[in-house]
C-alpha cells in the first residue's frame, strides 16, 4: 500500500496541527477540570471547515477524502480529545449519515447547517440496556400515519446537551427485530424531548454527554431516514465509518502522549544525565514509536479503503481495536516516563491517559470490534 500523503493532505494536516496548538491548547486543562464545553473552539472549527469535512460541497461540506479527515482527527486529538470527539460525531456519524442516506429535503434543511457548524449533531443509538447489543432497542417510534410518536431513553449521548439536531434510532415494529428499526431526525426543543443531566466522566470531560428522554415526541414522517426498516443498517453503516474516526482519535492521543514523553526525556535529568540516555526510558520510547507507526498504518489503510469504495468494516474495526489499545498503553507509559510530574495536571499526560480509555468503549467496545473482525475473517 502507498501511504504517501498528497500535498493537499499535508497542508490540511498542518493547518489542523497549527490550529490545535494555537486554539485548543490554551485552556484545555481548565476545560477538563470544569467539564466545560468548548463553545468558542467548536465555532472556530466550523469556520475552518472541520465539522463537515467529507460532506458534499453542495450542502456546505468540504468534499474531502477520509484520509484528510483522519489526519485532522489525529492532530486535534493530540491536544484535546474532547474537541475531537465533537468533530468525529458531527462528521462521521451525523453529516456522513445524512449526506449518504438522507433525501434532498433533509439535506437542505439540516445538513447545510451541520456541515458549517451553525448547528451541531448527535447520534443516538445507545440505551440503558442496548449499548453493545444494538438490535435490542427499547425506544419505540409508533407509526401514526403522517407522523411517528417517539418514547424511550437514550444514554451516553455525545453532544447530548449542545446538539441542535439528533439522529435517533428507534424500534417501529418489535416483531420484525432489527428489520423493524428506523432512524429519525429530531430537533432540540420539540415537545416531550427532555435532556437529562450531564455525565461526570473520567475523560473527554470537555465534551458533554447526556441521557435523552423522549416522552410522546411527535416526529414528522418526512424526518425518517431512508425506507421503512432501514434504521439498523443505517446505524451499522454509519458506525463502521465512525470507527475510523475514533481510531484516528486514539492514534492522536497516543502520538500526543508519546511526543510529550519524548520531549520530557530530553530535558529531565536523573543520575547525572538526561533520562533519554537511560535504556529504561529509551526502550519505552522505542516501543511507543513502533506501536504508533503500526496503528497509523491501520488507520490510513481503513481510511483509504473507504476512499477507494472498498469494504471498510474489517479494516475500520481492526484500526479501532489496535489504535485504542495503543492509546491506552502509550498514555500509561508516557505518565511513567514523566514520573511524579506525570501524575499532575500541568504536564497533560494524565489527561491523555484518562481520555484514552473511552476509545476502547465508544462506537463499539474492543470486544465488539473483535466480533466484527472475527465474523469477517471467518466468513471469507
Ligand atoms: N453494514 C451493513 N449492514 C450491517 C452491518 C454493516 N457494517 N453490520 C450488520 N449489518 C446488518 C446485517 O447484515 C444484518 O442484516 P440482514 O439480517 O439483512 O442480513 C443486520 O445488520 C443484523 O446484523 P447482525 O445479525 O450481525 O447483528 P447483531 O445483533 O449480531 O449485532 C453487532 C452486530 C456488530 C454486535 C452490532 O450490534 C454492533 O455494532 N454493536 C455495537 C453498537 C455500537 O457501536 N454502539 C456504540 C454506540 S454509538 C456511540 O458510541 C456514538 C458516540 O456518542 C460517540
Tell me the radius of gyration. Answer: 21 Å
Name the CATH class of the largest domain: Mainly Alpha
CATH architecture of the largest domain: Up-down Bundle
Low-confidence stretches: none
How many structural domains can be distinguished in the coordinates?
Answer: 3
Distance between the termini: 21 Å
What compounds are bound to the protein? acetoacetyl-coenzyme A
CATH superfamily of the largest domain: Butyryl-CoA Dehydrogenase, subunit A, domain 3
Mean pLDDT: 97
Shape: globular
Please report the total strand number as a whole number: 9
The DSSP helix count reads 11
Order of helices and strands: HHHHHHEEEEEEEHEEHHHH
Q: What share of residues is helical? A: 40-55%
Describe the main β-sheet briefly.
Answer: 4 strands, antiparallel
* CATH fold-level label of the largest domain: Butyryl-CoA Dehydrogenase, subunit A, domain 3
GO molecular function: acyl-CoA dehydrogenase activity; flavin adenine dinucleotide binding
Domain Acyl-CoA dehydrogenase/oxidase N-terminal: 6-118
Domain Acyl-CoA oxidase/dehydrogenase middle: 122-217
Enzyme class: oxidoreductase
Record the SSE blueprint.
Blueprint: H1 7-24, H2 28-34, H3 39-47, H4 66-79, H5 81-101, H6 104-116, E1 121-124, E2 140-143, E3 147-158, E4 165-171, E5 181-187, E6 193-198, E7 209-220, H7 231-267, E8 269-270, E9 273-274, H8 279-307, H9 313-338, H10 349-358, H11 366-379
Parallel strand pairs: 1-4
Antiparallel strand pairs: 2-3, 3-7, 4-5, 6-7, 8-9
Helix pairs in contact: 1-4, 4-5, 4-7, 5-6, 5-7, 7-8, 7-9, 7-10, 8-9, 9-10, 9-11
The chain binds acetoacetyl-coenzyme A.
Residues 89, 123, 125-126, 131-132, 134-135, 157-158, 178, 232-233, 236-237, 239-240, 313, 362-364, 368, 371-372 line the site of acetoacetyl-coenzyme A (CAA).
Amino acid at each position: 500500500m502507498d501511504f504517501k500523503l498528497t500535498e493537499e493532505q499535508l497542508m490540511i494536516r498542518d493547518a489542523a496541527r497549527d490550529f490545535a496548538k494555537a486554539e485548543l491548547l490554551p485552556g484545555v486543562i481548565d476545560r477538563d477540570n470544569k467539564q466545560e464545553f468548548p463553545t468558542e473552539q467548536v465555532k472556530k472549527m466550523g469556520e475552518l471547515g472541520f465539522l463537515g469535512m467529507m460532506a458534499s460541497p453542495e450542502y456546505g461540506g468540504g468534499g474531502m477524502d477520509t484520509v484528510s479527515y483522519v489526519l485532522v482527527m489525529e492532530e486535534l486529538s493530540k491536544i484535546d480529545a474532547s474537541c475531537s470527539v465533537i468533530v468525529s460525531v458531527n462528521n462521521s456519524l451525523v453529516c456522513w449519515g445524512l449526506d449518504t442516506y438522507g433525501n434532498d429535503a433533509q439535506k437542505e434543511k439540516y445538513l447545510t447547517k451541520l456541515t458549517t457548524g451553525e448547528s451541531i449533531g448527535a447520534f443516538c443509538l445507545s440505551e440503558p440496556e442496548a449499548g453493545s447489543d444494538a438490535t435490542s432497542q427499547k425506544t419505540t417510534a409508533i407509526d401514526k400515519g403522517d407522523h411517528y410518536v417517539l418514547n424511550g431513553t437514550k444514554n451516553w449521548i455525545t453532544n447530548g446537551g449542545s446538539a441542535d439536531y439528533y439522529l435517533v434510532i428507534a424500534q417501529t415494529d418489535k416483531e420484525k427485530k432489527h428489520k423493524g428499526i428506523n432512524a429519525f431526525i429530531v430537533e432540540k426543543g420539540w415537545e416531550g424531548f427532555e435532556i437529562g443531566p450531564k455525565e461526570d466522566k473520567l475523560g473527554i470531560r470537555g465534551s458533554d454527554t447526556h441521557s435523552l428522554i423522549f416522552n410522546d415526541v411527535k416526529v414528522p414522517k418526512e424526518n425518517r431516514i431512508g425506507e421503512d426498516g432501514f434504521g439498523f443498517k443505517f446505524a451499522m453503516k454509519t458506525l463502521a465509518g465512525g470507527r475510523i474516526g475514533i481510531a484516528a482519535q486514539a492514534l492522536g492521543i497516543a502520538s500526543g502522549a508519546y511526543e510529550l514523553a519524548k520531549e520530557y526525556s530530553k530535558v529531565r535529568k536523573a543520575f547525572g544525565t538526561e533520562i533519554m540516555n537511560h535504556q529504561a526510558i529509551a526502550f519505552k520510547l522505542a516501543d511507543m514509536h513502533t506501536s504508533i507507526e503500526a496503528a497509523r498504518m491501520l488507520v490510513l489503510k481503513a481510511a483509504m479503503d473507504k476512499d477507494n469504495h472498498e469494504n471498510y468494516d474489517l479494516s475500520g474495526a481492526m484500526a479501532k481495536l489496535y489504535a485504542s489499545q495503543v492509546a491506552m498503553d502509550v498514555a500509561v507509559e508516557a505518565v511513567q516516563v514523566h514520573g511524579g510530574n506525570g501524575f499532575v495536571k500541568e504536564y497533560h499526560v494524565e489527561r491523555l491517559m484518562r481520555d484514552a480509555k473511552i476509545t476502547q468503549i465508544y462506537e463499539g467496545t474492543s470486544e465488539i470490534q473483535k466480533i466484527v473482525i472475527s465474523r469477517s475473517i471467518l466468513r471469507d
